[in-house]
Amino acid sequence: MVQQPLSMGPVKPLERTENAYDINKTKPVTHYDLVMKELRGILNKLTLTNFDKLTQDIIKIEMVDPEELKGIVSTIFDKSLEEAHFCNMYARLCNQIKDKLPKFPEPDQPETDPVPGQEKPPKKELTFKRCLLNKCQEEFERADRYDELADTDSTPAERAAKSRKVRVRMLGNIKFIGELFAQKILNEKIMHECVKRLLSSTDEDTIECLCKLMATIGKILDHPKAKHYMDYYFDQMQLTAETVGKMPNGNRLKFMLRDTVDLRKANWVPRRETSGPKTIEQIRQEAAREGIVA
């Protein structure tokens, strides 16, 4: 026996509400979105070969808001940390554009009453260089970088992946800071402060950052006027090498520190040449010297 469906009478059509979800409805594209899209497109194509042309393209990007300037700094900064092999190129890029991008009044500056008989002090400006320095400092001093690793809901594999990501970002930031110093965007005082901060810890990642920084800037920092500072740093590194060498699995750090000490003794000439990004012409010249091409 087939059961007849219950009759519920005429069905009232659904009414469309004001906040109904519309799959075709898209978020309005802002000028900020367009600026970031243009910048990312340029950075994705940036190489040493087209460096000069694309640098000019970045300078020509029209910015109308301080948030766009901050966005440009953040995007270049993150790109340099993700692609640490190209840190030198991104530091050069920063050096080329730092004085050519627009400046904006510093937002949210408190109004101060003028001192009688004196001119009102000019408002601080938000510049590319200032944003970049703030970004480097924030990343260097981040206290929450390991918070995600404490997530008990993550699997061991997920925590290991997060740990690698944190480590890559830390080392990338240190290398980028060193390259910015080499480009004279950061001054020597800042470098000494960074070294002192890194020397104060025997944490594995911090020691590796210290060795990475010294390998990047040591040759520039090691001049007669700073000799007593450098002597102190390396005395401390030798002591740290002995300390960590007694720890479980501390041999890697001990030899890393000793290699850095030996690098200074060798007048900052590395035992193995560190290869960075090269232009197509440089690759062709090397191939010709080695007889790979005619």
Automatic annotation (TrEMBL):
SUPFAM superfamilies: ARM repeat. The keyword Nucleus does not apply. GO terms for cellular component: eukaryotic translation initiation factor 4F complex. One of its GO terms (molecular function) is mRNA binding. Residues 101-124 are annotated as: Disordered. It comes from the Eukaryota. Residues 36-267 form the MIF4G domain. Keywords: Initiation factor, Protein biosynthesis. The keyword Disulfide bond does not apply. PANTHER family: EUKARYOTIC TRANSLATION INITIATION FACTOR 4 GAMMA, EUKARYOTIC TRANSLATION INITIATION FACTOR 4 GAMMA 2. Belongs to the eukaryotic initiation factor 4G family. This is MIF4G domain-containing protein. It comes from Hemiselmis andersenii.
